[in-house]
Amino acid sequence: MKENYDVIIVGTGAAGLYCALNLPERTSILMITKQEADQSDSFLAQGGICMLRGEDDYNDYFEDTMRAGHYENDKKAVDLMIRSSNSIIRDLLQRNVTFARTPDGELDFTREGAHSQPRILFYKDITGKQITQTLLEQARTRDNIEICEYMTMVDLISDDNICGGIVIMDEQNEVYPVHASNVVLACGGLGGLYKNSTNFPHIAGDGLGIAMKHQVVLEHLDYIQIHPTTLYSRKPGRRFLISESVRGEGALLYDKNGQRFTDELQPRDLLSQKIFGQMKKDETEFVWEDMRPLGEDTIMKHFPNIFHRCLEEGFDPRKEPIPVVPAQHYFMGGIKVDLGSRTSMKGLYACGETSCNGVHGKNRLASNSLLESLVFARRAADDIIFGKKHEPCRLGSVDMKPYEDKEAVLDGYHKMVLKEIERMKMSHE
């Protein structure tokens, strides 16, 4: 690891990797991640990635996204994402990302909750892994991209609202200032702050707290999506997600008496409310999801990962319903960015789940996350290449003493984020 790079990218999920791969090979890039490079939430995305299916689908796709977001979405951002989807998918195919195909070789599409028609490409039930692993393998072949694992960002380097790099800490608690004229925060959401979450526990909103410390503008920190169906378990740790597309393919939800109690294809927030209400009424810790209507062939071919995980928990979805419970899943708020993924600090960009570009509004439409991440990661790369250049950060030496206790530093950031979430919640009540 050097002291100076052209670009530093924090995070090795789909957004961070795609940003790096869209920068010229003459650009020196440092990517850091708190754990191993494949321990990002992008690898966990099961359902798929949306794609505009011709001009006749535009109005429906736009309306589906807006309705799911309670019409709080930024219309320009939604339009940009939808209009960019075909070029993104073409590029992924050129990068040898594999998607499901029909028997005659055409791309296969599935439908998920709150979508008016099938427009979601998928690969089994590990679409996020298929996309992100392909991008990671390509990034590792690039001589200009250096990926450092087990490195934690503990601060930004900035002066006069101009970003000049980051402060990072390694596993031995050694602290290093690393300088760059452009920094991209692609460090994920905040699931690690919650007891029940589908996210990796180490992804806990560090970047949000660091941005707050530097008065970078944030938005809608209380817009936190609960996924309605995660596999119920008494074991501690990350909750396993039962994909939206399972219900899109025909799975049903039952109460404790085996009676269907709601429409399974409602937007996630509304369905979660229905499930919580049914659990309260039944005095149970879960409801039942029945995959048997899909048929064994669909279960085994489309959802093999879900099938095997259910077996590990003692349930065979081919023969019986499985217990499911809502859990924290996705973050729609974050560091406020414009259509070029620029933050309020010069030289600082944000993309992926840590950013808030307005696409999702108050609630994310299923399978828009991977597409949104890739679209706005490419926008960040384009702005770094073609955008207006800013004056460099003139900060000299950086005092490393405040960062000696990493856990205390990160805990401070986490408390800042949680406090702001509660403040925003109270202001809306």
Task: Please provide a written account of the structure.
It catalyses: L-aspartate + O2 = iminosuccinate + H2O2. Its EC number is 1.4.3.16. GO terms for molecular function: L-aspartate oxidase activity. It holds the Pfam family FAD_binding_2. By secondary structure, this protein is an alpha/beta fold. The chain contains eleven helices and 16 strands. Strands 1, 2, 5, 6, 7, 8 and 15 form a seven-stranded mixed beta sheet that branches. Helix 2 (58-68) crosses helix 3 and helix 3 crosses helix 10. The radius of gyration is 21 Å and the shape is globular. It starts with a strand and ends with a helix.
Give the arrangement of secondary structure elements.
Layout: E1 4-10, H1 14-21, E2 29-32, E3 49-50, H2 58-68, H3 75-94, E4 120-121, H4 127-141, E5 145-148, E6 152-159, E7 162-169, E8 175-185, H5 206-213, E9 218-219, E10 224-231, H6 244-248, E11 252-254, H7 268-282, E12 287-290, H8 296-302, H9 304-312, E13 322-331, E14 334-336, E15 348-350, E16 355-356, H10 369-386, H11 406-428
Parallel strand pairs: 1-2, 1-8, 2-5, 8-15, 14-16
Antiparallel strand pairs: 3-4, 6-7, 7-8, 9-14, 10-13, 11-12, 12-13
Helix pairs in contact: 1-4, 1-10, 2-3, 3-10, 5-11
GO molecular function: L-aspartate oxidase activity
Keywords: FAD, Flavoprotein, Oxidoreductase, Pyridine nucleotide biosynthesis
Pathway: Cofactor biosynthesis; NAD(+) biosynthesis; iminoaspartate from L-aspartate (oxidase route): step 1/1
